[in-house]
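Tokens as discussed.
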């Protein structure tokens, strides 16, 4: 329906670097999707808008959108979405100069990814890729806090996960995402 169309339009606008159009379309998508009670998709719109706000330097707005996405995902029980939002929240708090919060969110993301169940190799690849990114984010936050051992441990885990990902599975993940 309209909400999904707006979500896709927001993605297309973001790919073209159209900030105002991206913001408008993703905000409207989240609103419409909440009205029709499509929680996972509403969370996706908020998560995407939050991510773009971080890219645009709108850190507080980005963190607020990402928190809303996290809460939406949690309420509907979409653990993978919540973990992605937590990873993005971790980065937002690092950028806001709050590495303690960044580390907490990154470790929460790792734990949520650990609870995520997937069925296919493509989903497994996407999950492991995101888990690796959450651990990498945790390593950066821990380093900013002077927790060198924890930073090294998280970075080592992230590297091992990301190196283990097969290009064949990555290609399957790309095909599955485009279906």
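Sequence:
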């Amino acid at each position: 329906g309209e909400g999904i169309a707006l979500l896709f339009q927001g993605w297309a606008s973001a790919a073209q670097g159209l900030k105002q159009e991206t913001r408008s379309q993703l905000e409207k998508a989240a609103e419409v999707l909440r009205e029709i009670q499509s929680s996972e998709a509403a969370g996706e719109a908020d998560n995407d808008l939050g991510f773009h706000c971080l890219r645009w330097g709108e850190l507080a707005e980005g963190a607020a959108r990402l928190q809303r996405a996290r809460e939406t995902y949690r309420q509907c029980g979409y653990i993978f979405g919540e973990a992605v939002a937590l990873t993005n929240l971790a980065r937002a708090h690092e950028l806001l100069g709050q590495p303690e919060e960044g580390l907490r969110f990154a470790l929460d993301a790792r734990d949520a990814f650990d609870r995520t169940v997937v069925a296919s190799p493509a989903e497994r690849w996407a999950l492991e890729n995101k888990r690796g990114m959450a651990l990498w984010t945790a390593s950066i936050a821990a380093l900013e806090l002077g927790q060198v051992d924890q930073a090294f441990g998280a970075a080592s885990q992230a590297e091992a996960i990301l190196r283990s990902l097969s290009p064949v599975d990555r290609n399957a993940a790309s095909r599955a995402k485009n279906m």
